[in-house]
UniProtKB/TrEMBL annotation, chains A, B, C:
Keyword Metal-binding annotated: no
Keywords attached to this entry: Coiled coil
InterPro entries: PhoU-like_sf (IPR038078), Put_Phosphate_transp_reg (IPR018445), UPF0111_domain (IPR052912)
Family per record: Belongs to the UPF0111 family.
PANTHER family, A to Z: UPF0111 PROTEIN YKAA (PTHR37298:SF1)
Protein name: Phosphate transport regulator
Residue runs in coiled coils: 142-204
Length: 216, 216, 216
């Protein structure tokens, strides 16, 4: 029996983190779907319901993240570095938080309309969340899915660059066209929150890329 | 002589951190009291004085936090994990900072009036700070005061949820009633800063809860 | 052969970090120079060019910071604590980011004019960046340049206090004089971003001060 094999008995790769990370990624994808619906919905009652559903996903996410961190503190060996699992769980939790803040601002501010830029940004958020979910689902098999994982992360990077351009156009449009200062404040903050969401999704992709560098 | 006893000679529980943490908690409670006074005060000169007093508490807090971190770097054994003491000191310092930012915004923006929501939020901040101070004062005796500590943290959580509701009402009120865009900007930022303060107090309570999980 | 000398063979002070830190400091100083030019420039085309140049410095900074962190992960012994190098690289990267955000906001918001306070703040940023660069350039010789290093950090602290006063005057001026709410929003955000830049430069100086305490 080789020393490595021996060690691996005492240090079994603990696989319970994968389902939990995948669960958070699924919440995130669902939350983005609700957000997309919110930005194309005119019915006030339905909007309110969507905001509640988004809040519920965020609360579920808090719980799963709490469980991940609890397990990390009580598990000797984790599939990747403890810090990497922690960072990925944290940043996905951040995405759920910022999506919830987007929805909350829509609900509290009640802007008169959504400029087309916001619809584009929300679409980018949905696409990015789905890419992120696909990436997280491949993590448990990182050596075999190396290339696909990289492709997802690259796609997210591309989406983030696309969102940057849309964000700049949106703000330029707002400050040159919107004459109602209160509407401008409302939309500016909502647009900034949407852009932060895209950035956070990209931060999650960066964590996955750094895991790839180490383990794939 | 048992090995544990022997070890405890070389690793005495270092108790000097408790008075320093308690000092920060006391500054925080004092600072909240000034803040509450600020939001019910119409006299410009007295307002200015209160802002200076709040700033002074923040400066004192910086010093104590600096001392705590200095001691952490030079002490082999701390009563809790080094990281927990650091986290608690940091987050209480954050509370002092954000209270100071609230006061500074009131002073710089000079809003025409304070909506009743702001008065309620400041009241929640004072209550939360006092609960936090009580919790910190029990830390040095964590095993005996387990239940009381938990009660303080739960009360802070409840206050934070209360503040969430008040915050949402405040922002909804502002965006639907305030027609003066400049006043709206002023009050929105002040209200957001107040809500951040409550959140930070709750973050401090979360650090204490996580210490409880490990040591009580 | 003394044990210390022996150890130093296995633990050679790794000097490759200094040129990288110095490179980031140089980018930062260049970026501040462009920012200063931006705030005294009326020509729209030249402004746009300056924003692109600032963005380019930020991108270069990202690369150097990435290299520093990559090297830190692959080097056993670093000249200072791994964490100190990391913290300094990170905070200088933050300065480049926030300078870029200042420029981006000028470009997107297109304010009608720059109040004199903004020009003063940008001047403070340039001076602070130059002091920071001088400090970083002395780091490789920390024991001999102890006093000069401290002087640079003190000067940055003084600049930060100066900027605090200018910031407060600027915001007070804006809220009492600017009647156009949209212009007020634009200028307020730009002024806040400039103040953040000064704070970040001071954070970098604080990291250097904490290195000084340990090694000089």
């Amino acid at each position: 029996m080789k020393i490595n094999t021996l060690l691996s008995i005492f240090a079994p790769k603990d696989v319970k983190f994968f389902p939990m990370l995948e669960e958070t990624a699924a919440l995130l994808s669902q939350s983005s779907a609700y957000l997309q619906e919110l930005f194309s919905c005119d019915d006030k009652a339905h909007r309110e319901e969507l905001c509640k559903l988004i809040k519920a996903e965020e609360v579920k996410g808090d719980k799963v993240t709490g469980n991940i961190i609890h397990e990390l503190n009580n598990t000797f060996i984790t599939p990747f570095d403890r810090e990497d699992v922690h960072a990925l769980a944290d940043v996905m939790d951040d995405v759920l938080d910022v999506i919830n803040r987007c929805a909350q601002k829509v609900q509290l501010y009640q802007p008169q309309r959504f400029p087309s830029h916001t619809v584009t940004l929300v679409e980018v958020i949905k696409k990015g969340s789905d890419e992120l979910q696909s990436a997280v689902n491949e993590l448990s098999n990182i050596k075999k899915t190396d290339l696909r994982l990289r492709a997802h992360c690259k796609e997210i990077k591309k989406l983030e660059e696309e969102a940057d351009t849309v964000y700049e156009e949106a703000i330029t449009y707002l400050f040159s066209q919107e004459t109602n200062a209160v509407e401008l404040i409302k939309l500016k903050e909502i647009i900034q929150e949407l852009e932060k969401t895209v950035n956070k999704i990209n931060s999650a992709a960066k964590v996955i890329t750094s895991i790839l560098v180490k383990y794939a």
